[in-house]
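F.,

This is the one I mentioned.
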């Protein structure tokens, strides 16, 4: 353990809360900053604060409660299979309470900059005035706050242009003709929600994706038993189950996916197909051109619209790291185990993953690993080993997923969590060896935070 290490957590969503709990359980001190007025992240922010978050009032989990919950704190029995925004917020608040960390977060405090200070530690700027020094910064600030628009978005269109990030509920769209662009979870949720009040709702998709209903064979889709097969077989089994339940997407006027199930993020919705079947969401192909009050699609059809809503995802940026030299976006998120930049391991990330699966179990596993590292019970491997692992991951991602910016953070949940646990066990053994070596040679220099070969300079991106 680095005695008296000063630790800072940024963000109090699911990732930050899991991190605080893991540190508290090891009696490790930390400061913890959250810019909004409550903990819970995107699930709990007030309508006003949600301007910086990505949730809308009709949002429900798209992973089932049994797959999303933390291992030592089940979601309440009375919760539905796919809890709402409010229920997830209440669950996170109860979790923080149960593990005694709820009162430890400084709410309404925004980290506005992080940079290396002359002492080699991190200078963390809070609310653009206060500056504090830390040995370790744990970034759990989420990555869904900077909307991404396509180049030349809605060029020439004179109506309203929004992003999914701006949408709170259906009321403002009553009687309007709305075009929703995208085929991710935001697009299908928002198109389904707005179609309850809008005069017309068009959904424009540029390529096919697998649409997974929330229930398969009468149970939540992610609780469908699958034998512990290798990845490709497991996904083939899911793909078959989805195909048997949904049939051909072409029947709904949606493009068929050209990739196998599991090779891209999936879109989870039971509502969309019903809304299309009822004729209130009308699928359209990619946009060909915008005009002042209408849009022409690539199949030549032209529709008049009042509002265009881009549900085209988020820039995975960490704004307060932009000038630090360690913005993960600048290295295409090539991090060791999606947590550590080997050049600066003491600036670590929690929740910087997009799982095929659920996020909370992942941040729990990451938090346990990070807390043991800070406690000196886990040692990072040598720089060259981290570097090789990063390259291996990169190749795995290129092999497994469709090439898209959207998949830079993609992981397969069980596979990734198992890998983290294996790495955790390896690092625990190594830390033990290091402690034994230190006990026999007490004067030997100790490297910080269990890194075995000091700062890493040999990484080439
Ligand atoms: C609309 C939507 C729905 C989703 N649904 C699911 C789902 O069903 N299942 C699933 O597994 N995943 C889902 N996800 C992924 C989701 O990101 C995670 O489930 C999870 O809630 C993210 O937790 P987090 O702590 O990493 O980030 P967040 O919940 O975004 O929390 C980050 C926190 O950091 C704070 N913060 C940010 N910057 C600063 C700063 N500079 N200073 C201080 N505080 C800061 C924010 O205010 C926020 O409270 C969804 C994502 C979105 C956008
Ligand atoms: N719990 C829930 O129900 C729920 C709801 C909403 C969001 N979420 C989660 O929140 C995260 C963000 O989801 P998201 O849907 O906002 O973003 P996303 O997953 O990144 O999806 C973006 C969509 O926009 C499309 N797109 C991107 N650029 C485009 C362009 N230039 N022209 C046309 N289409 C374009 C993408 O298509 P390509 O595939 O072709 O790139 C994709 O279909 C995801 O992790 C998601 O699972 C969950």
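My design for it:
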């Amino acid at each position: 353990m680095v005695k008296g290490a000063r630790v800072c957590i940024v963000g109090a969503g699911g990732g930050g809360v899991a991190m605080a709990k893991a540190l508290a359980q090891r009696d490790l001190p930390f400061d913890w900053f959250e810019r909004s007025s409550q903990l819970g992240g995107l699930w709990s922010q007030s309508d006003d604060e949600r301007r910086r978050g990505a949730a809308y009032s009709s949002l429900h989990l798209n992973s089932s409660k049994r797959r999303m919950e933390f291992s030592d704190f089940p979601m309440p029995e009375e919760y539905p299979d796919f809890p709402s925004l409010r229920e997830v917020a209440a669950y996170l608040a109860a979790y923080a309470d149960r593990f005694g960390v709820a009162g430890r977060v400084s709410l309404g405090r925004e980290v506005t900059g992080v940079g290396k200070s002359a002492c080699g530690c991190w200078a963390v700027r809070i609310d653009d005035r206060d500056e504090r020094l830390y040995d370790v910064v744990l970034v759990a600030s989420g990555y869904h706050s900077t909307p991404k628009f396509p180049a030349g978005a809605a060029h020439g269109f004179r109506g309203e242009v929004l992003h999914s990030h701006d949408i709170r509920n259906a009321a403002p769209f009553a009687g309007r003709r709305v075009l929703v662009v995208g085929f991710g979870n935001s697009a299908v949720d928002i198109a389904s929600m707005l179609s309850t009040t809008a005069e017309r709702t068009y959904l424009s998709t540029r390529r096919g994706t697998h649409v997974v209903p929330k229930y398969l064979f009468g149970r939540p889709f992610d609780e469908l038993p699958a034998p512990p097969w290798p990845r490709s077989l497991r996904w083939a089994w899911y793909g078959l189950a989805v195909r048997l339940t949904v049939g051909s997407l072409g029947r709904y006027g949606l493009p068929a996916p050209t990739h196998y199930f599991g090779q891209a993020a999936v879109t989870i919705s039971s509502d969309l197909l019903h809304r299309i079947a009822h004729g209130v969401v009308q699928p359209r192909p990619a946009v060909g051109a915008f005009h002042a009050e209408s849009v022409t699609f690539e199949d030549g059809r032209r529709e008049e619209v009042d509002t265009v809503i881009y549900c085209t995802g988020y820039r995975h940026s960490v704004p307060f790291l932009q000038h630090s030299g360690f913005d993960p976006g600048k290295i295409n998120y090539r991090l060791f185990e999606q947590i550590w930049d080997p050049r600066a391991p003491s600036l670590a990330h929690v929740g910087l993953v997009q799982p095929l699966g659920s996020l909370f179990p992942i941040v729990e596993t990451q938090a346990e690993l990070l807390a043991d590292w800070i406690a000196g019970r886990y040692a990072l491997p040598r720089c060259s080993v981290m570097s090789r692992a990063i390259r291996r991951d990169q190749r795995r991602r290129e092999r497994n997923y469709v090439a898209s910016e959207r998949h830079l953070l993609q992981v397969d949940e069980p596979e990734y969590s198992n890998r983290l646990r294996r790495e955790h066990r390896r690092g625990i053994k190594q830390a033990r060896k290091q402690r034994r070596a230190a006990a026999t040679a007490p004067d030997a220099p100790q490297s910080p935070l269990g890194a075995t070969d000091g700062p890493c300079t040999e990484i080439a991106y």
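The chain is about 25% helix and 15% strand.

Talk soon.
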